[in-house]
């Protein structure tokens, strides 16, 4: 394996079958030049990311920060994939590693950033949030720094972003999605004067639906199914109270986010709200 590029003393780029790989190891580039062979006994990690753009950005990140942060990020991502049983978009290698490095640097400078949606993150992302807490344990173990719980929420959002789309460069969009989910839940809660059973399968399904609905709002995509006209009329008449609640949601979304909810989206929102309200009252 010949060195194509030296990123720092501990990371180099090699090329195999027209694919650039980032190879890391302590002192792997010490006294080396482009074209030299990589000492295989020094290799600790090899990264092959999904496309050239992501690969180039990751190379830039690796060249700027200590290897320990990249290794920690990789350990957290591997743990997340195992826990969730899902693939995560490769952009998380950039966003999560950069966030952890920035968060630790900021904390050591005495700056703590509050996570205004921490409570909602705990409720909406019950699989991802514990991974954020484990990440804090790993950070403390490696760097002897205990970051505040707010950071577990931010890390969870990075994981959610990698699950949902991964094309976004920042986690801000997922943060907005979480906010709109909370706003819709509040409308339903106050409209029916109920408390949700957050452990129920119906609540989980409703949250999952809201997650993808909110994603469409910020992506300006509308769900349409021309075959549901008859069903929409039936649901509208059968679940009148839930449909009236959806109309309130639709007005709120249009006023605040300039997004018009289609009849198809109203149909599925009505069904989900009817289910969760019925189960909550029961």
TrEMBL record:
Segments forming domain PRD: 64-169, 172-282
GO biological process terms, semicolon-separated: regulation of DNA-templated transcription
Alphabetical list of SUPFAM superfamilies matching this protein: PTS-regulatory domain, PRD, SacY-like RNA-binding domain
Recorded superkingdom: Bacteria
Pfam families, sorted: CAT_RBD, PRD
GO molecular function: RNA binding
Annotated keywords: Repeat
Membrane-spanning ranges: none
Protein name, per record: Transcription antiterminator LicT
